[in-house]
Amino acid sequence: MSEVYAARRTCLRERCNAGGSAAALVSRPANVRYLAGAAPHGAVLLLGKTEDLLVCAGPPGDRPTEGRPDELLSVRVLPGPGGDPAVAATGLAVAQGAESLAAEDHHLTVVRHRAMRSVAPRLRLTDLGQAVEQLRVVKDEEEISCLRIGAEIADQALGELLESILVGRTERHLALELERRLVDHGADGPAFPTSVGTGPHAGRRGHRPTDRRVEEGDFLSVCLGATYRGYRCEIGRTFVIGTSPADWQIELYDLVFSAQRAGREALVPGAACRDVDRAARQVLDSAGYAENLPTLTGHGVGLEIDEDPQLAPAAMGKLDACVPVTVEPGVHLPGRGGVRIDDTLVVRPEADGGPELLTITTKELLAL
Amino acid sequence: MSEVYAARRTCLRERCNAGGSAAALVSRPANVRYLAGAAPHGAVLLLGKTEDLLVCAGPPGDRPTEGRPDELLSVRVLPGPGGDPAVAATGLAVAQGAESLAAEDHHLTVVRHRAMRSVAPRLRLTDLGQAVEQLRVVKDEEEISCLRIGAEIADQALGELLESILVGRTERHLALELERRLVDHGADGPAFPTSVGTGPHAGRRGHRPTDRRVEEGDFLSVCLGATYRGYRCEIGRTFVIGTSPADWQIELYDLVFSAQRAGREALVPGAACRDVDRAARQVLDSAGYAENLPTLTGHGVGLEIDEDPQLAPAAMGKLDACVPVTVEPGVHLPGRGGVRIDDTLVVRPEADGGPELLTITTKELLAL
């Protein structure tokens, strides 16, 4: 794996050099992990003029770390507590002869930036912008395989839940049970707080589980994901409780299903992100639900659960092959509930069989 | 409750006015919640010249919110997605005639600060510093009662675990079960990721649970906490698995127990934070464990699990009455394990009976 991290750092270094900076400071934890293999609490990565350094706030024993730091990378640990690795790294950049340093202005606070400036008043601080986030958008097969395993784990956890009795149990209990099953099946942990919505809560994006119990006739929406080796996937399904769904439930489900399928089918390399969003959205719009739609119908996933690209009406940019995204349209009717269907897929060229579906739990309307 | 939030805002406003700013922008979520009753995702609080406003990123239905916004407070919701409430609030401050605005430079990123500057080039942006964090240090009885309930919940969850069979179960399972029990007993959720360490992992602060199983003869350290109405408490205990602890285990346990008691007994209004730390630390130091100690032996708790004050060798400041803190010395011997004992207490004057212990689970060395 070490070569992978070194290659990523080379790639970033080239972008920095092209932008006129010989050195870069990466502070956002997911970006540090992407380039260094691990992101100990508070650690920053310096791409220096002569050497790359992972600068850590304290001894590694003090705080456990996910991932393992790249062995090719030198590690510096600040001696005492209270030091800021970003400030220390700035000093190290100057010691290496850097005249300018590109930093992540969208992550550093004003106070940290000021402290960096004060230890190196002659250093020119520039903005690295979202350079690392942009590198992270297209995944390699190793990364995709972590997402695939995470998706399998989420599918298993969800499948087991469906075999159990649901009526009478609370949203909170169901969410906790799902999270326990994720860990049982080998996840590092949940990729995000598991959402379980019943009855009027069903179909709400990001609904936080309450003490409401599952009742006959409810819609039940579940959204969960596993983290596997740092990579986060997402699956969402909606079910009906009881033997026979009501007509309005079948109608709404079919509509959201069509929208989600339209979104999935629009996932081709080169497609504009806003066109994928529009493909899903217009199915719901034209059925009169324009007011009940979420602001986005999908997003990238990876080391974070919400990454670029966004699938939304104002999104810029196009999809590339090997970009994993969610497709997750939904309709929520206040007071009545609703439907969301959410998959994680990888954009693939048509020649390779089109989009690769990672979350394979059925999307038929199941009555449980 | 509304009067409480209004009084807190008045208090902050007076500090700002004294510092020469007629308006303040609060962006750190726990600070927003403290002053507004709730912190919807991304929301900021403007203390304006003529009106206080809670500026939210999107409609409240989109993202669930903990707490309920103070009814005395006007709420503005940004119309479209992608807007930054901090930038919008800056514009609103100018519209109210503010010439300067004090912002939380330790929370705002460089990019957000730049965007605020660009919408209001004539506005003087100053640093509010940790003014709200300082207000939060001393708690009122309502806040302490939330912490007390949280501590009861954590005690219950821990007590139930101790009644079950532990040998053969993994750290991860025990941690998940504890978190489930916290929620069962009415917690909003865990106050922080539950830590369970067995054998060589026991006694490590912040140990992340692994698949190691509990064995006869192990030390078992558990650290958990409940969030109740936003307030977070913490309890940590160490046990021995099996009928009779080894001599070294009894010795180490007694030592950490003495250190923790010394720390608790040093909690009096007016005591220097570093003296409380020293009281606990010197017991362990003089037994030869100076190398095996954590960087702090306690910290404040409240809306966040790690607040001011810090109980550490270099800490400044003194304790006031009604400040809740943890006292949590520990010794970890690499390869062998160790002991941590952690309570949440409220500093109270001697006349009121001295420090109030919120986490009442026994600190005898239990063999389970």
Automatic annotation (TrEMBL), chains A, B:
GO molecular function per UniProt: aminopeptidase activity
InterPro entries in alphabetical order: Creatin/AminoP/Spt16_N, Creatinase/aminopeptidase-like, Creatinase_N, Pept_M24, Peptidase_M24B
Source organism, top-level taxon: Bacteria
EC number(s) reported in the record: 3.4.11.9
SUPFAM superfamilies noted in UniProt: Creatinase/aminopeptidase, Creatinase/prolidase N-terminal domain
Pfam families: Creatinase_N (PF01321), Peptidase_M24 (PF00557)
Domain Peptidase M24 positions: 146-348
Entry keywords, A to Z: Aminopeptidase, Hydrolase, Protease
Domain Creatinase N-terminal: 8-138
Xref: Gene3D superfamilies: Creatinase/methionine aminopeptidase superfamily, Creatinase/prolidase N-terminal domain
Ranges where the record places region Disordered: 190-211
Designated name of the protein: Aminopeptidase P family protein
Source organism of this protein record: Streptomyces lancefieldiae
